[in-house]
Amino acid sequence: MKFLLIFFVTFYIVNRIFCAVPEDPQYWRKLTKKTLYYSKKFVHANEIKQAKNAILFLGDGMGFPSISAARLLKRQLTGNYGENLAFEKWDNVAVMKTYNIDFPVPDSAGTATAFCSGVKANYGTIGVNGRVPFKSTDCSLMLENGAETIYEKALKSGKSVGFVTTASVTDATPAGTYAHISSRHFESGLPFEDKRCKDIARQLVEDHKGYQVMLGGGRKHFLPEGKESGGRKDGRNLFEQWQEDMKKQNKRYKFVSTRKELLATDYNKIDYLFGSFSSSHMKFHKELKNDSSETEPTITEMTEAAVKILKKNKKGFLLLVEGAKIDKAHHLNQAYYSLNDLLAFENAIMKAQSILGNKETLMIVTADHSHSFTHSGNALFTEDVFGFSSYPDKEGKNFTNLIYSTGPGYNSSREFTKEQIKQPDYKQLSAVPLDSATHGGDDVGAFGIGPGSNLLRGSQEQTYVAHLMEFSTCIGEYANEPHCSGCKILIFSKILILIVFISHLIRFSFD
Ligand SMILES: *[C@@H]1O[C@H](CO)[C@@H](O)[C@H](O)[C@H]1NC(C)=O
Ligand SMILES: *[C@@H]1O[C@H](CO)[C@@H](O)[C@H](O)[C@H]1NC(C)=O
Ligand SMILES: *[C@@H]1O[C@H](CO)[C@@H](O)[C@H](O)[C@H]1NC(C)=O
Ligand SMILES: [Zn+2]
């Protein structure tokens, strides 16, 4: 009896030590590191290069159906049958499994944790490992289980860091680079009292003073109630606080709130740029007015600003560019806005590539998750991507080429005219009525170019993105890899010591 008990207790302890479970950060770190090293076997050692900079272009909700449909839209807009999206021409591609620890169909917070921190997390949680449940109010638990992001690691190693988003700067994806919290909804306040824990907006302004570029929407999370659209109940004005902090530290900074102010910025005169262009998320690309009265910049204009500031650092930089509204439009079943935002996102990628080239910068284009979106109508190439299938359904009713499985587009009558479906705010039909479409659980693509991108291969866990960026830029736990310049200095100094030693030996032998 006693023997059995000892046996089982020992078995349990050994099991816990050597076999991590998905809630443990080590489970994902070990697994991902192993697959990364496995990928190295397929690339000659001389071909594994260090990246000075790395940019992650994150198309929120940009699953394969979105990419394929946007490509068709681009072909129809340009009239060029062979046209592809810019990143489809890149050499290296892998497939990413996006599920959260607890939900097979993930959300943007849990997935951001995977590609920013290299560990998978629970649905709705940001920058904390799987031991923290969604909406936990246990501050100690959060503090004990923070998952350091590659952006934080890059800052420590002397690189510059920034992000660009068309959502609020406190939204799940950009927050994935800096926040450590149990719920993506704790953007400008916490539902519990504990001085050690801060909401997402405060974590950005107070804990990440090294961030050099922060561009997006979300003004209401930074301003006190009663001021403009402010929603903070603690009376803080975090924009003022940020500017005071910058001034105290003698930094060259600028705070901008309009497109005009952004475009008037001299990037040689400032090193820190905070832009907040709307109360909440920014507009869809197709909602922007194409003249000087528009107050919101395009994603391309923001990306250009970010790259021009960050590239001044000789040690390099890490940047996240999020095409956030691809997802927000899909949630509304509005494919017109979604696909046009995807093309605007592609334009930002091309802009960055044209400024930086592909020698020093690793660029990865991926999505956090897919969507309930399908391109399953059956029409000729000549038919508008937003048009009707070439044959009606069993009841003689027309249906569109683009359809959703869930969302607000549900309509039991299913009677639409050709004019109705061509309206920008038309909601494509969904099979299941919901206020907001659900995400898709299907795997997403990751397209890469530049140093390190040749390790982008196979079907991987989404944590692979973080590990590959960390590995290629030689930061964090991958700082001493053989391809890292730091390591070469080590080899060089060893040779130098050897030469000195031998020359002394020779001198002694002559004496
Ligand atoms: C504005 O219009 C010009 C000229 O038609 C075009 O080249 C440009 O791409 C447009 N910009 C936006 C943001 O739509
Ligand atoms: C379906 O669309 C075709 C082409 O636009 C049109 O001729 C036809 O009348 C439509 N059918 C219905 C039932 O609306
Ligand atoms: C369904 O479609 C019909 C015809 O286009 C429209 O009149 C009606 O308002 C729609 N119903 C809902 C709930 O959107
Ligand atoms: Zn979403």
TrEMBL record:
The reaction(s) annotated as catalysed by this protein in its Swiss-Prot or TrEMBL entry are: a phosphate monoester + H2O = an alcohol + phosphate
Has the keyword Cell wall biogenesis/degradation been applied to this entry?
Answer: no
Question: Origin, by domain of life?
Answer: Eukaryota
Please verify whether the record's keywords include Phosphoprotein.
yes
Q: Which Pfam families match?
A: Alk_phosphatase
Swiss-Prot/TrEMBL cofactor(s): Zn(2+); Mg(2+)
Signal peptide positions are 1-19
Keywords annotated in UniProt: Hydrolase, Magnesium, Metal-binding, Phosphoprotein, Signal, Zinc
Enzyme Commission number: 3.1.3.1
Q: Which CDD domains match?
A: ALP
SMART domains this protein is in?
Answer: alkPPc (SM00098)
What family is it from? Belongs to the alkaline phosphatase family.
Instruction: Supply the name of the protein.
Output: Alkaline phosphatase
Organism encoding this protein: Dermatophagoides pteronyssinus
